[in-house]
Amino acid sequence: QRCKVEMERLNSLEETINREQLLFGINQGGTYDDLRIQHMKDISELDMDGYAVGGLAVGEPTEVMYHILDILTEHMPVNKPRYLMGVGTPSNIIEAVARGIDMFDCVMPSRNARHATVFTWDGITHMNNSCYTLDDKPLDEHCDCPTCRNFSRSYIRHLFKCGEQLAGRLAVQHNLYFYNTLLEKIRENLDSGTFEEFRREYSERLAQKA
User: Fold this and answer.
1) Strands of the sheet with 50-53, listed across from one edge
2) pLDDT for 27-65, tens place per residue?
3) Which of 48, 66, 119, 122 sits between 20 and 30 A of 142, alpha carbons compared?
4) 25 - beta bridge partners?
């Protein structure tokens, strides 16, 4: 409530920079159903620009996170953006979209890439594994990012083993491209009414070890 009042005050000042930024209400309550629901009801009455779900993906089982999203859906305003904070894996994103979430943020694609973990359309790949020592295929045979078009798994593994900074840069480039493509495909399938088919094909598949 105080944030909303202060935002209105700032927007009324001529010298304010970045006027009319969006202010989201952030739902909290741990893994307690009653606290989550009551808090969502309370912040919904504030008529914020959007609504976020915070305090998840911090160590609780994935099924618990999905359960919290399930119970919150009917209490979240339908005409406002819904933002799940700090999530997550490709499979998490697909499952959250199925539960009505619109927006995400996460360090996972870049942070994991710097530690040789790559997301592909066949699952999760760890480039330090010895099986890629002589593998001349791209990181993901179904990807057309600059990394996959120009470099092999064996070369990128070699860079990681040598401690070359380029290894992380190439892996980050691929992961960010993959995440962007994933969201594009989600939007396309939502628009065409085929999202459930997409979910059945890829939700578990993207969580497996490739």
Assistant:
1) 24-27, 50-53, 82-85, 103-105
2) 999 999 999 999 999 999 999 999 999 999 999 999 999
3) 66
4) 51
Of 102, 100, 118, the closest CA to residue 168 belongs to 118
- Model's pTM, two decimal places? 0.93
Structure tokens at 169: 């840069």
For residue 143, give the nearest of 153, 132, 158 by alpha carbon: 153
What is the separation of C-alpha 93 from the centre of its chain, rounded to a whole number of angstroms? Answer: 5
Closest of 151, 167, 185, 154 to residue 117, by C-alpha: 167
Task: Indicate the DSSP class of residue 37.
Answer: H
- Output the CA–CA distances (angstroms, integers) from residue 6 to 1, 10, 107, in the order listed: 9, 6, 30
Q: What angle do CA 59, 62, 65 make, to 5 degrees?
A: 85
Q: Would you call the peptide bond into 55 cis, given omega within 30 degrees of 0 as the criterion?
A: no
Q: Which residues of 120-135 are buried (b: 16+ CB within 10 A; e: fewer)?
A: bbebbbbbeeeebeeb
Give the tens place of pLDDT for each residue, 71-122: 999 999 999 999 999 999 999 999 999 999 999 999 999 999 999 999 999 9
Residue pair 75/44 in contact (Cβ under 8 Å)? The answer is: yes
DSSP state of 209: B
DSSP letter assigned to residue 19: T
At 138 the three-state DSSP class reads coil
